[in-house]
Amino acid sequence: MTRILIVDDELAIRTVISTFLEESGFKVETTESGLEGLEKFRRFNPDVVVTDVNMPMMGGILFAKRLREIGFNGLIIFGTASLVDGIVPPILVFKKPYKISSLIDAIVTYSG
Q1: I want to staple 18 with a disulfide (CB 3.0 to 4.6 A). Which of 26, 28, 86, 91 is the partner?
Q2: Beta bridge mates, 95
Q3: Is the whole model's pTM more than 0.90, yes or no?
Q4: Which residues are bridge partners to 3 per DSSP?
Q5: Domain 3-111 carries which CATH code?
Q6: What pairs with residue 29 in β-bridges?
């Protein structure tokens, strides 16, 4: 079962995304910042990370860079209205608002 970590400071977004992903058969954990995301990442060991860019404590760009530094080579999906630059692939960027079905399709394609 593909494990997905969702990192977003907006509770409503975390709740909607996690609900749809869980109903689609994925194992999901959520957290509200990149800093907390690093802690949860180490415990949960996800296959895919879905993150916002603009968050308190540690934003998504720095969070993604830290993931790469500790050896995470999995897919990072950014949900944002901002540009994303300087992150080692594989990454996908979904402009908010995005369709949950598009997110699920991307995860299924990547996790094959």
Answers
A1: 28
A2: 80
A3: no
A4: 27
A5: 3.40.50.2300
A6: 5
